[in-house]
Amino acid sequence: MNSIISAHSASYKDRDGFVFKYQGEYYRCINAGYNDHYQCLVQGGLYNELIKKKWLVSHEEIADTAAFNLPGTKIILPQQISVITCPYEWSFAMWQDAALLTLNIAKAAIEKGMLLKDATPFNIQFLNGAPIFIDTLSFEKYTEEKPWVAYRQFCECFLAPLLLQQYCTVDGGKFFTIYPNGVPLNVLISILPKKAKWNLHNYLHIYLQAAIKDKKEKNNAANARVFSKQKMLLLLNGLTGYVSKLHIKKTKTTWDDYYSDTILSNAYLHEKTKLVKSFLSSVAYTSMIDLGANDGHFSLLFKNTQKQIIAVDGDANCINDLYIKIRSEKITNILPVFNTLQTPSPAIGWNNTERDSFNERIKGDVILALALVHHLAIANNVPFDFIAGWLASMGSYILIEFVPKTDEKVKLLLQNREDIFHDYTVENFELVFSKKFQVILKEKITGTERLLYLMKKL
Amino acid sequence: MKYYLLYLDPGSGSYLLQAIIAAVLGGLMFFKNFWISVKSFFIKQKPKNVLPEEESKNQESE
Question: Which of A106, A140, A230, A266 reaches 20 to 30 Å from A134, CA-CA?
C-alpha cells in the first residue's frame, strides 16, 4: 500500500477492504474485487432497507479520493460511532439483541439476493439505545445452493456466550474475552450442565455440531448437496425463534436492588441527587461516564438530553436491567457497559492492538465516581494515588464521593478483615487527589458523613 | 485437540449439519401446520354445537 493511509489494527482479515482513520474520522476503503457485491448491496435495495430499519450504519461515498492515494478503490465515510464497546462488555439482553439483529439482517439479505458472510458480534455496536451493524462489507451475492457460510461462527460467537449466560453465570459473556473468535463448542459443552442437552435446539446447534466437527468428513458429497433458499430461511427463522426464547440465568447478584433494598435511605438518595445536579450545572460538558452506575439512577437523571452518558458497572444483572429500561423507554443517550472496574477489559487480539482496552476506549468530560472509592480502596486495596491517576486519565472533571470509615457501609467492608487502611482518611484523600485535581466544589451530603467533591484535572 | 482439525475449513461439517437442521425444522413446521389445521377444523365445527338460543343472540348482536 503506497499511501499515507494505514488500516485500523482490527481491520486486517477482510480482503475486500479495510477501515482507516483520517483526520479524526473513520473511513472504509473498498477494494476493486468487492465492487460487484457492493453495487448489489447499494443498487439491489438491501442497503436502503437496512438503513430505513436502522440496522446498518449509513455511509456516504467520497467523490474525490485523491488525498487518500488508494487508486482503484472506493472510499466511503460511514456514520461515526463515538463509543466502541466490545461484546464482552454487554449484558445478556444486549447479546440477545445483537444476535437477533444479525439473524434479521441475514434474512433481509437473503430476500434481496445477498448473503451475510460474517457473524461476529464485533460487527455490532450499540447506538442510540439499540444495536447496529457496522460492517458494510459483510455481504456477498447469494447463490441458493450454498448454506450459510457464517453458521458455525454464529453458533460459537453468539449462541455459546448466550447459553453460558443462561445455564452457567450471568457474566458468561466474559468468556468471549479469552475466546474472541468464538467459544469452541467442545469447551462450551464441557461447561454447560447436562440438562442443556435435552433441548432440541441446543442439541442440534451445539451438541450435534460438535459431534460432526470432531469427525473429519469422509467425503465431500454433503458439501456438494444442494441447499435452497427455503432451507436457509428455515434455518434462520429457527435460530431466531430459538434465540428469542433464551433467558438470563436467574441469580440475585450483590448489587441487585442496591438502592431499593439496602440501608441507603430515600433522604440520602434525594440529597445526593440534588447535589449531583447542582454540581454538574456549573460545568460545561457533553459526555459523562458513570462509574459503578448500578441500576443507572444517576445516569437516568440525564436521560434524553444532549449529554452522552456511559453507564459502567461490574454487576451483569444491573447492566441488563438498565439496558432493558433504556430499550423499553427508547432512551437514546445512555450506553450501558458491563465491566469490572478493578479488572477492566484488556487489549486483545493480534499484537494486542486488535481490540483496545477499556481504558483506551472509554473517555468522557465528566467522570461520576459515586460511592465507589471505598470499594476500590478498602474492598480491593487500591491506593488513592492509583485511583486518582486512573480517573485523571479518563476525563477532565470528576464528581467523586468520599465515604469515611465511620459510615455503615465502610464498617461493613471492614467487618471481617483487619483494618490495614490507616491512610484511608479524608485528609489523605484530599492530599493525594490534590496532586492531580483541583477541588472546585465540596459539600457534605446532609444526614451522613459522606462528602461530595467536584474536581477539575490540573 | 486433534491436529488435523487445524487444517479443516472452518465451514466444513456445518454444511451437512445445516441440511439436517433444515430438514428437522421443516418437519416440525409441517407437523405444527398440520396440528393447527386439525385444531382449526374443530374450532370451525364449534358454532354448530352452540344452542339455538345463543345462536340467535349472536345473530342479533351482529
Answer: A230
pTM given for the model = 0.90
ipTM value of the model?
0.70
Give the span between the Cα atoms of A385 and B11, in whole angstroms.
51
Cell 450501558: give the residue. A336
pLDDT in tens, B14-26: 778 898 899 999 9
Cβ separation B17–A212 shorter than 8 A:
yes
A411 and B CB contact within 8 Å? no
Q: Does A204 touch chain B (CB under 8 A)?
A: yes
Q: Is A330 left (phi over 0), alpha (psi -120 to 50) or beta?
A: left
What is the phi-psi region of residue A343: left when phi exceeds 0, alpha when psi lies from -120 to 50, beta otherwise? Answer: beta
Asked if the C-beta of B16 comes within 8 angstroms of chain A's C-beta atoms, the answer is yes
* Selection from A388, A400, A398 nearest residue A436 by Cα: A388
**B18 contacts in chain A (CB < 8 Å):** 147-148, 151, 227, 231, 235
- The values of phi and psi at residue A444, to 5°, are -85, 140
Domain A258-457 sits in which CATH superfamily? Vaccinia Virus protein VP39 (3.40.50.150)
Between chain A and chain B, the number of residue pairs with CB atoms below 8 A apart is 75
